[in-house]
Amino acid sequence: MHIAVAGNIGAGKTTLTQLLSKHYQWDAHFEDVVDNPYLDDFYTQMERWSFNLQIYFLNSRYRQILRIRESGKDVIQDRTIYEDAHIFAPNLHAMGLMTNRDFQNYTSLFELMESLVMPPDLLIYLRSSIPNLVNQIHNRGREYENSISIDYLSRLNERYEAWVHSYEKGKLLVIDVDRLNFVDNPEHLGEVINRIDAEIHGLF
User: Which terminus of the chain is more solvent-facing, meaning fewer CB atoms within 10 Å of its CB: N or C?
Assistant: First the structure.
């Protein structure tokens, strides 16, 4: 079984992935943030490095999906290949931070990769308000994220909502992280787990 966690920057994807991996004994696959050679440069000079960053993520996530399928294990994945293509790259293009030529090249490559992979069995979307995202980003203190603007987060949130609204690739579970603090409240984590159980086992 392949479970994926989606959501904006600071929504709590990595934390929830860790918690669910521990609870269900699923193999966890995380986003390549530490070893990503473009992140620092991207947040300093978005227009120059946007295409490079998105290609790096696309390559990384495609390889990750292949490893997930080859493993034959139950896996939970922190962020999906779809978010780059439907949210981050189009947002950079719309903001004038990725050229038409680069965006078309990126989109063509994504469409080829998408045709060769299977979607997750369950997508968990972490819905969050902008104030909550800002608070989370501030609390984790990643230096390269200091330059992220409210406008940038808001644009991403709008695209996430539009994408989730039209998502039809498989089962979808939406978690309101403004309401459910699964990090500090065991009861809230229990509610999330109950809802996942219902989706996995088909209980309604």
Answer: C
* Chain segment 109-157, per-residue pLDDT in tens: 999 999 999 999 999 999 999 999 988 888 776 776 776 788 989 999 9
The stretches in the chain having pLDDT less than 70 are: 33, 141, 144, 147, 203-204
Q: What is the 3-state secondary structure (H, E, C) of 138-169?
A: HHHCCHHHCCCCHHHHHHHHHHHHHHHHCCCC
Contacts of 182 (CB under 8 A, 6+ apart): 12, 15, 16, 19, 175, 188, 189, 192
pTM of the shown model: 0.91
Mention every residue, 6+ apart, whose C-beta is less than 8 A from residue 116.
none
Nearest to 190, CA basis, from 178, 181, 199: 181
Of the candidates 35, 41, 78, 151, the residue annotated as catalytic is 78
CATH number at residue 174: 3.40.50.300
Name the residue among 140, 123, 111 with its Cα closest to residue 79: 123
Q: Which residues pair with 3 in a beta bridge?
A: 76, 122
Per the structure, how many domains does the chain have? 1
pLDDT at 43: 83
The DSSP call for residue 30 is: -
